[in-house]
Design a protein that fits this description.
The protein is an alpha+beta fold. It folds into 2 domains: about 1-70, GIY-YIG endonuclease; about 70-104, no CATH class. About 35% of the residues lie in helices and about 20% in strands. It has helices spanning about 25-35, 60-70, 75-80, 85-90, and strands at about 5-10, 15-20, 50-55. Strands 2-1-3 form a 3-stranded antiparallel beta sheet, sandwiched between helices. A hairpin with a 5-residue loop joins β1 (about 5-10) and β2. The mean pLDDT is about 90.
Length: about 100
């Protein structure tokens, strides 16, 4: 069975990068070596692998990667730290349309 990984890297400038691959070790090494000078990571090396999760279906992995890419830095750190309580807090909608903010 094929394995796919969604991962989060921390760049040397504190930026977080989210990606998907079928070989986590190879991909992190490619990021470290800077094989592509047009890549987002190229000028932000060295990088550190903070988190990864394995999927058996590439479509699920891509879906989750796209979802994480939209998250705030704080929410990504909550995922990395396994802080489920903070993850739930940060997942709540905080805009004026949220039910907490509607007039009673």
């Amino acid at each position: 069975m094929k394995a796919y990984y969604v991962y989060i890297l921390e760049c040397n400038d504190g930026m977080l990068y989210t990606g998907v691959t079928n070989d986590i070790t190879r991909r992190v090494n490619e990021h470290q070596k800077g094989l592509n000078n047009t890549c987002f990571i190229f000028k932000r090396r060295p990088v550190k692998l903070l988190w990864h999760e394995m999927f058996n279906d590439i479509e699920q992995a891509i879906f989750f990667e796209k979802k994480i890419k939209k998250w705030s830095k704080a929410k990504k750190h909550a995922l990395v730290n396994g802080d489920e309580k903070m993850l739930r807090i940060l997942a709540e909608c905080r805009n004026a349309s949220h039910y907490d903010f509607r007039p009673k």
